[in-house]
Write a structure and sequence with these properties.
Strands 1, 2, 3, 4, 5, 6, 7 and 8 form an 8-stranded mixed sheet that branches. The protein has a 5-stranded mixed β-barrel with strand order 9-10-11-13-12. The chain has 3 domains: 187 residues, 2-enoyl-CoA Hydratase, Chain A, domain 1 (Alpha-Beta Complex), CATH 3.90.226.10; 133 residues, no CATH class; 70 residues, OB fold (Dihydrolipoamide Acetyltransferase, E2P) (Beta Barrel), CATH 2.40.50. By secondary structure, it is an alpha/beta fold.
């Protein structure tokens, strides 16, 4: 056989293989697997909603949720439930270990439910267990279960301990079902060992499986939108800005504070909790505070407006009032407590002096007749060159010095007297005339 014939034969076989693979790929069912693992939060909700939309756009034959969660936020679970009910594709759920609390609601939103041996589902009493919250969540469970032909009373008993079912749960207890018991009751469709068993049981044996996972941005968003981490970021942000307002110049604390706030809002942008308009509202608040501090004397409309804009932007970046007040309240309390401690203690430490890039002003002073007697010392008098709010610049013996007042506002031109010198921090008060 000539070389040209060999080349032709190889090309034919290659094209046949490609064509054959294409036919097989087109004929095989496609299943998109979405893991519902860990705490149910805003970041997970954003990931699941994106994954469901992708499965719908690419016309997947089915969506398989693989569930293992102790629960989490009810509002996030409700958002996931709604996206699953509107998926437009068959949704299967496989509870590998547990689907508790908010995880049970997500599982009930599936068209078909399978559980692994030893897995459990239920334990969905909300905390705090208030009548209004229990009533709303019970209705969600009942409606979701009823939609797929499951016993709504069994679903309600997972939420409300006042519901008793003879032979299953007594009044005063919250229902949690094992896989075996749920199968006996017909509350789930299948008890299966593996994903392959689940797919085979629902007519998807041999399906092409696409395993979805959160992208790096969604992983970061899940971490930084956690309520504890959010409180920590706000506290660090507030403390950093407080440190800069109460000391001259700009240093590490202010940069760290702005970085913490950028992480706080950036995570919420990615998770879809906040829009760009909320970030702009926060920046407006910062701008108004800077205007008040650097241009306008005293504390008036700009300062109040700045604080209002900042707290409004923080409030609007949370999905509900309860979450907002909890996180912002904790951050504010922590800022007050740690701020008071830092103002009293930290400036006296060598570590703070190095971080703040302070220098002993005695070394920068203009000596008088005695070389050991610096100009900047307790009792020295001068004049405010800029307004002190409370930080600013004063002139003492011909030397420009960064200083802070003892808390009061001092307009430019006010005669001042040095009351304290600690490292590079000079504190002054208004000098009495005469």
């Amino acid at each position: 056989m000539t070389r040209h014939r060999w080349v032709g034969l190889l090309l034919f076989l290659l094209l046949a293989a490609v064509w054959g693979n294409g036919v097989l790929a087109q004929g095989a069912a496609r299943v998109y697997v979405i893991p519902v693992v860990g705490t149910i939060d805003e970041g997970l909700a954003a990931f699941v909603e994106r994954s469901v939309a992708l499965a719908r756009e690419e016309r997947a034959d089915a969506i398989l949720l693989e569930v293992n969660t102790f629960g989490g936020r009810v509002d996030s679970a409700t958002a996931i439930r709604d996206s699953l009910l509107a998926a437009g594709r068959p949704v299967l759920a496989f509870v590998r270990e547990r689907a508790w609390s908010a995880g049970a609601l997500i599982t009930l939103a599936a068209d078909k439910i399978a559980m692994a041996p030893g897995a459990s589902i239920g334990a969905a009493e909300p905390q705090p267990a208030e009548e209004k919250t229990i009533s709303a969540l019970r209705a969600e469970f009942e409606a979701t279960a009823q939609r797929h032909g499951r016993d709504p009373k069994v679903a309600a008993a997972m939420v409300d301990k006042r519901i008793a079912i003879e032979g299953l749960v007594a009044e005063g207890e919250i229902l949690t079902l094992t896989a075996a018991r749920a199968g006996e009751l017909g509350f789930v469709d299948l008890v299966a060992e593996s994903r392959q068993d689940v797919l085979a049981a629902f007519g998807l044996s041999g399906a092409v499986v696409a395993e979805l996972s959160p992208n790096w941005a969604e992983r970061i968003a899940r971490f930084f939108t956690d309520p504890t981490v959010s409180s920590l970021l706000l506290t660090l942000g507030f403390l950093g800005l407080l440190a800069e307002v109460t000391s001259p110049g700009w240093g590490v604390p202010g940069t760290a504070g702005l970085t913490a706030l950028a992480l706080f809002f950036g995570a919420r942008l990615i998770a879809g909790l906040a829009g760009l308009e909320i970030v702009l509202l926060f920046l407006l608040g910062i701008g108004l505070l800077l205007l008040e501090a650097l241009v306008l004397p005293g504390f008036g409309v700009a300062g109040v407006g700045g604080l209002a804009a900042i707290f409004a932007s923080l409030y609007l970046s949370f999905p509900d009032a309860s979450s907002a007040f909890t996180v912002i309240g904790l951050a504010t309390l922590a800022t007050v407590v740690f701020g008071a401690f830092l103002i009293r203690r930290v400036p006296k430490t060598g570590i703070w002096r190095r971080i703040a890039l302070e220098t002993r002003l005695e070394e920068l002073g203009v000596p008088g007749d005695d070389p050991q007697d610096p100009v900047v010392h307790v009792g020295a008098q001068g004049q405010a060159l800029t307004p002190l709010r409370p930080a600013g610049t004063v002139e003492i013996g011909g030397l420009r010095v960064d200083a802070v007042s003892e808390g009061e506002f001092l307009p430019a031109g006010t005669p001042v007297k040095v009351t304290k010198v600690i490292g590079g921090r000079v504190t002054v008060r208004q000098a009495k005339e005469g």
